[in-house]
Amino acid sequence: MPKNVTIFTTNTCGYCVMVKKYLGIKGVSYEEVNLDQNPERQAEAMAISGVTTVPVTVITKNDDSKEVVVGYNLAKLAPAVA
Amino acid sequence: MKDTGTTETTITVHDVVMIGAGPAALSAAIYTTREDVETMLFERGVVGGLAAVTDWIDNYPGFPKGIAGLEFAEDLRQQAERFGANIELGEVTKIVDEGKYKKLETTSGDIYAKAVLIATGSDYKKIGVPGEQEYYARGVHYCATCDGAFYRDKHLVVVGGGNSAVQEAMFLTRFASSIDLLVRSDHMRASDVLQKELLEKHKDKIKVHLNTTTDEIAGEDGKVTKVIGTDKTTGEKVTFPTDGVFVFVGLSPNTEFLQSSDIELDEIGLVTSDASLQTSMPGVYVAGDVRSGATMQIATATGEGATAALHIREYLEGHKRTHGEEV
Question: Which of A72, B71, B233, B284 could be cross-linked to B116 through a Cys-Cys bond (beta carbons 3.0 to 4.6 Å apart)?
Answer without folding.
Answer: B284
